[in-house]
Amino acid sequence: MSKKILFFSSIVLILLFLTACGGNESSSNEDELNLYTSRHYDIDDELYQQFEDETGIKVNVIEGSADELIERMKREGEQTADLFYTSDAGRLHRAKEQDLLQSVESDKLNENIPKKLSDEDQEWFGLTKRARVIVYHKDRVDPSELSTYEDLATSKWQDRVLIRSSENIYNQSLLASFIELNGRDEANEWAEGIVDNMARDPQGGDRDQAKGVVAGEGDIAVMNTYYLGGMLNSADDEEVKVAEQLDVFFPNQDTTGTHVNVSGIAVTKHAKNKENAIELIEFLSSDDVQKQFASANYEYPVNPNVEPAETLKQWGDFKEQDINLSILGENNADAVKIFNEVNWK
Q: Which residues bind Fe cation (predicted)?
């Protein structure tokens, strides 16, 4: 064989290999789907594998921060992934606003997921739920002192409150819910009062707020339930010791209810494997899988047929805010403005 024939044969083989790999582009294949996710939990990977085993559909997973993945979807256009999976309704709404998602019709999803935990236009669906609560030190705070989110902004809690920064999407969504329930002026007053009552400048994540309370930097923290659930069941003995000194209080039980948010998933506008994508969402919302979510990651199930994990049950039932979570995204920009106005760092 001549050198020229060998050369062209090599070129053909290289092109065939690149075509088979598909580069970075999303491709249509009846036996696969492509998922972008900002979640990083072992249980998620286990469930994707279970889905593959049951259906024969391979789940190709690419991880990144929510904002990075949104920008990637915008940049890739028609060559992007089939699914976008992230925490917080505010981020999901951000993707919807940028015309990156599409509406989905599914009787199974309508049955498994309450309407208020999904987008009004069915462009995203909540899969796990978490409450943003008051966590307090058992020895320094009597739970009878606690009542509402609004009460945290009063003078009795001066220099006692630990909470994350205004850049945190969980806090943005919390304030967005207050805008919807109480109006902008009251939401502004609340944010201003919390800034006055902060025991320190905001720093770190939710677990850091819990550790700060135990270290004596403050007496109460605002944080998501699943963080404390994870700490109570952690392999790190120090985290367990911290969590055991704390307890949970669900605020606003006699008024508007406790704030809840979701991790949610959406079919992208240009999904090439749409049917496979919908099948995965239906799988993740099913009774058995929701039970696995709840027991492994201490998130509340969205499926009303499934009970919470034992750790969460011990904290008791609670009344939730009665709003559709789409509003958290719609009010996000206004919430950020308020944070800036009151100098919430």
A: 40, 226-227
Q: Are strands 246-249 and 125-137 parallel, antiparallel or unpaired?
A: antiparallel
pLDDT bracket for residue 88 (50, 70, 90):
very high
Model confidence at 22: pLDDT above 90: no
- Cβ within 8 Å of residue 125, ≥6 positions away: 104, 109, 113, 117, 118, 119, 264, 265, 266, 281, 285
Q: Quick one: DSSP state of residue 308?
A: P
Which domains can be identified in the chain, with CATH numbers? 3-129+261-307 (3.40.190.10), 130-259+321-341 (3.40.190.10)
Half-sphere exposure in the Cβ direction for 205 (13 Å, CA): 7
- The binding site for Fe cation comprises 40, 226-227
| 160 burial via Cβ count (<10 Å: 0-12, 13-18, 19+) | buried
Percentage of the chain beyond pLDDT 90 is 89
pTM comes to 0.88
Binding residues: 40, 226-227
Strand partners, 220: 136, 161
| Predicted pLDDT of residue 311 | 93
Average pLDDT, the chain: 92
User: DSSP label at 95?
Assistant: H
Helix (H) or strand (E) holding 144: none
Under 8 Å between Cβ of 258 and 251: yes
pLDDT more than 70, % of the chain: 92
All residues at 6 or more sequence positions from 103 whose CB lies less than 8 Å from its CB, including other chains:
121, 122, 123
Which of these, 156, 316, 336, lies nearest to 249 by C-alpha position?
316
| Spatial CB neighbours of 209, under 8 Å, sequence gap ≥ 6 | 135, 162, 163, 164, 218, 221, 222, 223
CA angle, residues 335, 68, 172, in degrees to nearest 5: 15
User: Minimal CA–CA distance to 180: which of 7, 56, 328?
Assistant: 328
